Amino acid sequence: MKYEPVIGLEVHVELATESKIFCGCPVVDSVEAEPNIAVCPVCSAMPGTLPVVNERAVEYAMRVGMALGCKIEPVSIFARKNYFYPDLPKGYQISQFEEPLATNGEMLIETEDGEKVIRVLRAHLEEDAGKLTHVEGASLVDLNRAGVPLLEIVSQPDMHSAAEARAYAENLREILRYLGVNSGDMEKGVIRFEANTSVRPVGTEKLGIRTEVKNLNSFRSMEDAINCEIARQSKVLDEGGEVDQVTMGWDEEKGQTYVMRGKEDAHDYRYFPEPDLPPLKVDDAWRKRVRADLPELPRAKFERFLADFKLSEYDAKVLVSDRAIAEYFEETVNNGAKPKAVANWMTGELFALMNQTEVSIDEIKVTPKALAELISLVSEGKINKNTAKEVLGEIFKSGKNPQAIVEKKGLAQVSDTALISGFVSSVINAHPDEVTSYRSGKTGVANWLFGQVMREARGRANPQILREELMKQLDG
Ligand code: ZN
Ligand code: MN
Asked: Which one of 246, 293, 298, 341 has the minimum C-beta count within 10 Å?
């Protein structure tokens, strides 16, 4: 039978605040920092301590909620989610349950069949747990991460392929980075996915029984786990069986999902309102303040780049994918360079240099002003494109001014027709066989001869003049 997958995502996002959500401990790098250096009586659950909500964490959560078009609830409630695990010293996680901070938003994604709206059910605040490291014969507990603010964003089951789930997740990451609330550093686990997947016969409405795959830390493993579940569940149904409602893990090496435990229901956690925290109230003034500070979001920027700069959709998409890159582009344009040329130089040569050296746009020595200058040297005919590439490589290394490099190295383009004509004559004299074969109809040889002349001119000849002179002498 043909089955239609139905997928919903729960995304846990670490909010990049300075301090934890309910105490003053700093948020430290979960990979680099020494274990248990950012721990206090509150986040290690000493008796008699009380939580206090971090205002910045609430604001970050509001930003995300607003960016997703959610309603920011005037009152939301923290609750205790009770369970035991060694990385959770209190024996419960403070989370929002019945009344979350943000509700009913949506996100637009691109799919094979065009644009599609994915509804967002809710986004709620909670605290992260610590981290366990299993060594031989023991498990080590690191509480640096315990109490780091998390925003859990829950979608409706509106996605119907792993590719759609990935598009949703990638868009979300882009938005989070734009908002400055998350680094997007997936290797550090700052964004984690849980995928709810079920399948149903194509054409039917009733939802099938779903499984939940936990702890997916990359787009790739999320996509693979969903595809694995789609295939597995389809097979179970084809063989006349029933899908069990279970919580699963993902075995990266085997590329398989595995059952971790039977599915727990909300009531198993004995949720009840957190008695140590008052209801979280957001008034109009606070909401307005946060909204006023929202940056232009990727989608709006994309539309504006298309309209204002007449870029191709591809270029606009690449340039808005990162806020710093988009800002660099605009600044270069503001320095007088043509948008299309800036897009070409950035997505071509500049990104290539950045990839080779693994530096980000914030770290490069080429300023937007220098790139704009380089582009105008080309458009004014002072240097040709190949020379410009060489110069860009030089600026990239030294941060020097393009004009200075051109002068110092004598790279200025040769546009002197007589001089170029001389180079052409000497090449033609040196290669009589090639000239004969050109004249007997093998016109492709002209390109080879062009290359020889350019070499003679040490790459600096104005290519248009060179071609004209070459054709004149070959055909004349
Ligand atoms: Zn603490
Ligand atoms: Mn959660």
From this structure: 293
pLDDT surpassing 90 at residue 179: yes
Same domain, 7 and 155: yes
Same domain? For 138 and 110 the reply is: yes
78 near 277, Cβ under 8 Å?
Answer: yes
Distance, in Å, from the CA atom of 317 to the CA atom of 226, rounded to the nearest integer, reads 26
Domain stop point among 380, 409, 438: 409
pLDDT at 172: 98
> How far away, in angstroms, is 151 Cα from ligand 2 center?
8
> Each residue of 318-334: pLDDT tens digit?
999 999 999 999 999 99
Asked which of 382, 409, 436 is the last residue of a domain, the reply is: 409
Q: At what angle do helices 162-179 and 55-67 cross, to 10 degrees?
A: 130
Are both 194 and 281 inside the same structural domain?
yes
Domain presence at residue 51? yes
Confidence of residue 408 (pLDDT cuts 50, 70, 90): confident
251-263: pLDDT as tens digits: 999 999 999 988 7
Amino acid at 16: A
pTM of the full structure = 0.84
Q: How far is the CA of 427 from the centre of ligand 2 (A)?
A: 72
Closest listed residue to residue 364, CA positions, set 352, 354, 349:
354
Residues around ligand 1, an ion, CB closer than 5 A = 23, 25, 40, 42-43
**Distance from Cα 126 to the centre of ligand 2, integer Å:** 7
Ligand number nearest CA of 49 is 1
**What domain range includes position 453?**
417-475
Smallest Cα–Cα separation from 301: which of 336, 284, 325?
Answer: 325
Are residues 192 and 85 located together in one domain of the fold? Answer: yes
Distance 38 CA to ligand 1 centre (A): 7
Task: Specify the pLDDT at position 412.
Answer: 78
CA 146–ligand 1 middle distance (angstroms): 8
Share the mean pLDDT of the chain: 95
Report how far ligand 2's centroid is from the alpha carbon of 399 (Å): 46
| Gap from CA of 21 to ligand 1 centroid (Å) | 9
Check whether residue 139 and residue 189 sit in a common domain: yes
Q: How many domains does the chain have?
A: 3
Dist. CA 234 → ligand 1 center (Å): 46
Find the 68 Cα to ligand 2 centroid distance in Å: 19
Contact 466, 420 (CB under 8 A): yes
Dist. CA 104 → ligand 2 center (Å): 18
**Is residue 410's pLDDT more than 80?**
no
User: How far is residue 392 from each of residues 173, 325, 352, 357, 363, measured CA to CA in Å?
Assistant: 31, 17, 11, 14, 15
Cβ 165 vs Cβ 226: under 8 Å: yes
Q: How confident is the model at residue 112 (pLDDT cuts 50, 70, 90)?
A: confident
One domain for residues 349 and 243: no
- Cα 19 to averaged position of ligand 1 atoms, centre (Å): 9
